[in-house]
Amino acid sequence: VTWRVGRVVVRLDAASESRPGIDTAARLAASWRVPLRGVFVEDEELLALAALPFAVQITLAAGRGVLRRAEIEGHLRAFAERARREVAAAAERHGVEWSFAVVRGSFAEDEDDFIVAGGAARPLGGQARLPPRWQPAAHPLLLARREWAVGGSVTIMLRRRGPPAARLLAIAAEIARLGGGMLTVLGAADAAGPDSNDFAAWVAAQLEGRPLILRTELVDMDLAALRQRFAAIDCRLLVLEASAPEEELRGLVERVACDVLLLR
Amino acid sequence: MELAASEDRSSYRQPDAGGPRPPDAAPGRPLPPALLYSRCDPASLPEDLAGAVEDAAGAIGQDRAVEAVEFAVAMRRKGYNVYALGPSGTGKHTLIDDLLRRRAAAEPTPSDWCYVNNFADPQKPRRLELPPGRAVHLREAMRRLVEELRAALPAAFERDDYRTRREVVDQQFKERNEEPFAELQRHAEAKGITLIRTPMGLALAPRRDGKVLSPEAFEALPAQERERVQRDMAEVQGELEAVMQKVPQWEREHRDAVRELNRETTGGAIALMMDELRAGFCDLPDVPAYLDAVERDIKENADDFLAPAAPAQPGVPIPAQLEEAMTEARFRRYQVNVMVDNGAQRGAPVVYEDNPTHQTLVGRSQYMARFGALVTDFNLLTAGALHRANGGYLILDAQKLLTGSLGWPSLKRSLNAGEIRIETLEQLLSMASTVTLDPEPIPLRVKVVLLGPAQVYYLLSALDDDFKELFKIAADFDDRIERSPESTLRYARFVAGVVRRDGLRPFDRGAVARVIEQAARLAGDSEKLSAGLRDIVDLLQESDELAAEAGLGAVGAAEVQQAIDARFRRGDRVYRRLQEEIGRRTIRVETDGSVVGQINGLSVISLGGLSFGNPSRITARVRLGRGEVVDIEREVALGGPLHSKGVLILAGFLGGRFGQSRPLSLNASLVFEQSYGGVDGDSASAAELFALLSALADVPLSQSFAVTGSVDQLGRIQAIGGVNEKIEGFFDVCRTVGLTGRQGVVIPASNIEHLMLRQDIVAAATEERFRIIPIETVDQGLSLLTGMPAGEPDAEGGYPEGTFNQRVAARLDGFAAKAAELARQAAALPPSRP
Hints:
By secondary structure, chain A is α/β, with parallel strands linked by helices. Helices cover 36% and strands 27% of the residues of chain A. In chain B, the strands form 10 sheets. In chain B, strands 23-24-22-21-26-29-30 form a 7-stranded mixed sheet, sandwiched between helices. In chain B, strands 8-13-16-1-17 form a 5-stranded parallel sheet. A 3-stranded antiparallel sheet of chain B has the order 3-2-7, with helices on one face.
C-alpha cells in the first residue's frame, strides 16, 4: 500500500475555527516532512450578499444590522491576516516550510495535497454554533475540531474488507503512530462477515509489524450508539471512507465531537 | 555566718541630723584609712559558692520591682501591663524574663491560630482557633486532601459513566442549538434563501440556481418577484431573530447542566474524603463550617483539579516553572496558613521582640509578583510578635518601640481593641495603592512588659493618655542596692551563678570579695552595691580571661584587680594626657605653697564608660563694685545652669554673712583657669567660695589641697557626686608632681560613706603621705586652708581681730567707705549740660 503526501494544506475561512486546523496541519507537515500551505478562502456568496441593497445580518450582541460589503471585506482581511500569523507561528514551532495565500471562492488543489480544514463552526457568541459546513472532497480531508494536545485514540470505520479498506487502514495506522499508537478498528457488522474473529484476524494481518495498540470491534451502524461508543473509547480522530453513503457520512461528520478524516 | 562587708558608718550624720559622730571622723581632721575603703572579708563568704548559686540573679535588691511585676502578672484585667523602668544593665530584662517564664510554665498553653480562605470574600481571610498543635494537623490534612483530589477527581471525570453523561448533556445542547438553525435553514431554502455565516453573526441570502443572487441578477427580476424575495427574506429574518434570541438561554441551561453534572460527580468523588477530614476535627467548633465551605468550593470549581492550565498558544508548551506556579495558584485557596503553632510550646509563651515595629508586632501581608502584578492572599499573611505572644507575655524595649516604625501606635491600638488586626503600612496610612487584605482580627490576650529608662516612663506618663490606661504598673528598678550581709551573700551567689552559666574558671573567695568591693565602687557608695549587673558580668569574664592567659585554674583577687585596672587603662588616654600636661605644668595646678584667691577645684570627666577626676585651678578677683559676683564661665556660655546656681548661692552667702551691717560694694569674678569645655554642677561652689573669700580677705590659701563640695547660703558644706574619682584624680597629680605629706582633698563630711578609694590611696593615707579631710562648714574649710581661725561673730555681728572673717569684713568696710566717698564726689559735681 502506498500513500504519498506532497503538501499539507490548511483551508481557512471566516466561518470556521482556525486554530485546531492550523496546529494539526503543522504537526502533520512536520511529521511527514512536507511543506505547509495556508489558504484563506473568502466567501464569495457572503460578498455577493453584502452587495444586495436589502442585506442585513443578525448578531447575538447587536441584533439586526445592515450588512455592508466594505465592512465585510475589512473583516475578511483581518481574519486572513490573523490566520497568516497563526500559520507562520505554527510552522515556526514545528519547523516546517510554509506559504500562505488568500483566495476568493475556491483554490486549486494538487494531486498529493492533504487537506486540513476547521471542523467546527465559529461560535455565534458563547458556545452556540451552526452545524459545520462540509462538502465531500477529492483529496484526503481532515476536519480538525480539537487541540492536538487533548490526546485520545484514532478510530477507523470500515464497511468492507478489500484493498481500498487495507489502504485506509494503513493510512489510519500511520496517523495513529503519530498520536500515540492506539488504533481502534470498527467494522460494520453487516459487512464484516459472519465471524468477528475472522475480521479481527484480517485487520491484524494488514497491520502486521506496525507498533500499534490495536483494538478491533464489530458495531452496528446506529448513529446514536456509535457516538456513545466514540465517547467511551475517547476517540480523537475518526477515519471514514469518503465513498460511504452521503447521508450516513453527513450524520457522522456533523454529529461527532472528534476530528474526522475522510479518505477515498 | 557573719559578713564583714562594711564597717558601720551609718552612725555618721550631719551635725544638725543629731546623730552621733565617730570619734575618728572629726571635721577638719584627716580620715583614718579604715574609712577610705569598705572591704569585703573573703572569710565571711561561704567556701562552696558554686553550690549556692543565685537562681534569680537579677532580683538582688529589686524587691519593689519584683513585687510590681508579680502584681501585674496576677492582674488579668485590661491595662495592667508593665513598664519596667531603670538604668540599662541592671538586669531588668533577665529578671523579668525569668519571672515571667517561671509563671508562664504553670499557665495553660494557648491556642494555635491560622488563617484560611474566606470563600465568600477572599479579601477577608477567616481566622481559625485550634487547640495547641492541631493547626499543623489541619494544614497537613488539607494538603493531603488537595493531593488526593488531584488524583481522584480526574479519575472520576475520566470514568465512562461521566463521559457518557457529559456526552449526553453536550449532545442535547448541540441538538437543541443546531436543530432550530437547521429547521430554519430548511424553511429558508424552501423559499430560495440560504443562511450564511458572516464574520459577526448570520445573514440570509436569496439563492437561485445554487448561487447567491448578484445585485444585477436581483435587479433583473420582475418587480413582483423582487417584492416576493424581499418579503420572504423579511419573514425568515424574523424567524432567525427569534432563534437567535433563544441562544443565550440555551447556553445558560447548558452551563448549568454541565455544572450540575460536575458538582454531582465531584460530590460523589470527594464525599468519603471530606467525611474522614470532618471526623478528625469534629470536636472543634469552627473547623466543620470551614470544611463545608471547602467542599462547596471544590464542587463549584472541580475543573481546577481536572487538567493542567491550558497553554495560551496551542502547541506551545508551558515552562515547567510557570506550570508549577499556575498549579500552585489554583490550589492556594485550600491551604491553611498557620500563624501560630503552639504544638511544641509548654505553658504560656514569653516572647521578646528585638525590633518592635508595626509589622513585626502585628504581622504583615506580604506580596508576590505574578505576571507583572503584585498580588497577595491569606497565605501571605505572616505573624507578628503579638501573635506569638498571644496567651502569654511580650517583652519589648521601650525606646526601640517608640523609635520603630509605627510600633507604638500599633501596640496601643491592639491592646486597646483587644485584638490583632493585620494591616499593611499603606492601609494604616490610608495610602493603599494595591489590593490589600482585611483579615478577621485575632482576639488578643497578652501581658506586655516594656523595658526602658525612667525618663521615657515619665515622658509617656505626662504626654500620652493611652500609656496611663494601658501600662498601669511601673516596676521601678534601682541602680544600686543596700550593702548588707544578706545582699552581699546574694551577690556572691550571683557571681557563682554567672561563673557556672558562662563556664568560667572558679572564683575563689578573695576574687568574689574583690568583685563585691568593685560593685560598691561602681555604686559610688561604700554602703551600696551596684545593680549594674552587666558591668559585673563583664568584669567576671575579663578576670577569667586574664586567669586563662596566666595559665591559672581559678580566678583570684589579683586577676579581678588586674581586670579592673586593665579596663581603666583601656580608656584612660585622655586622663593620662591631662595628668601628663599637669606634670609638665602646661596645665597649671599648684600642689604646694599658698596663693591668695586661688584654689584647686575638682571636676569629673566622663568619656565613654570611664569617669575620672580632674583638678583645675579656680581663681577669684575682687574690686569695688555693686555687689555682683561674676561667673566668667557663664559669661562665655561655658557654665551650665547648676554651676550658675552655685555661684549665685555664693552671693547669697556673702550677703547673709557680711551684708547685714554694710553694703556689699564689690564686684567679684570667678573662673576655672585653663578650662576650655563646659562646666556644670555645683560641686565646686565650696572651692569657689574659698577662693572668693581668700581674695576678699587677702589671705592665701594652701595649694596642697583640692576642695570638692557644694555650699548652701548658710555656709554648710553639702555632699557631691564622684567623690572617689575626684580624690583619685588629685592624688595622681600629687604623685606625679611629688607627694609632700601635706597634700590632700577636702570633702564634704556627708561624702565619707561614699568612699571606696583605690588601694594606693588608702596606703598613702595609712603612711600619712596623703589626707582626706571632711568638713561640714565653710568656716572649718577656711581654718584648714588658711591656718587662721575663721572667727565667730559677736552680738553686733563683728568678728574678733586676727580672724579670717574679720579680714573679710574689714575689706568690705573699706569698699563700702570708698563707694560712699565716690558717691559724695559724684553728687558734688555740677549737672552735665545736654
